[in-house]
Specification:
This protein is an alpha+beta fold. Helices cover 37% and strands 32% of the residues.
Length: 180
């Protein structure tokens, strides 16, 4: 019995071979493990975009107001700070389906029972690019305005305050003008 016998692979060997093959297959698909990271990055990008839109609205209004103030007689420099209460609000189109079922039963004793079941389903309408269809976009509400300017005459400061109140529909106590 000195013959060398060849052993055929057993169950353990086949299991090891299959596990190694499956591991190689999983490692060859690069995006398999990055999917959740990409989703998190995408949601962070959406949040950042919303913050940027909020900032850009306030910054745009600040720039426009600064340009306007430099046209006022005597004003040599102007710096504006605008604060907002919220972010831009986007109103999407929604489709609502309502289904109503009514049931009336008469029992053996002559009594009458009625029941009504209402089911309502609301779906957001999507555009061709799978984005929600926007019906309206509301700009943020201005909370307050601070203006630092140089060279304005006293009567112009009052006119500037009234103009800011009218532009942003805010009361006088939410507008502060500092004239250096």
């Amino acid at each position: 019995m000195d013959k060398k016998t060849k052993k055929e692979p057993g169950i353990k060997e086949w299991a090891i071979i299959l596990a190694a093959g499956a591991l190689l297959l999983l490692l060859s698909v690069p995006d398999l493990f990055r999917g959740k990271e990409n989703e998190a990055a995408d949601s962070k990008a959406v949040i950042q975009q919303n913050v940027t839109q909020q900032k850009s609205y306030a910054e745009q209004m600040e720039e426009k107001l600064e340009e306007l103030l430099l046209k006022v007689k005597g004003v040599t420099s102007a710096k504006v700070l605008i604060t907002v209460k919220s972010t831009t609000e986007k109103i999407v189109l929604q489709d609502t389906e309502t289904d109503t079922e009514s049931l009336q039963e008469e029992d053996g004793g002559g009594g009458l029972r009625s029941s009504q079941k209402v089911m309502e389903e609301t779906k957001t309408v999507l555009s061709g690019e799978k984005e929600p269809y926007l019906t309206k976009e509301l700009t943020p509400e201005v909370a307050g305005v601070v203006i630092v300017l140089s060279g304005a005459e006293a009567e112009n400061v009052l006119a500037i305050a009234e103009a800011v109140q009218a532009l942003f529909n805010i009361p006088a106590h939410k507008v502060k003008i500092i004239n250096n």
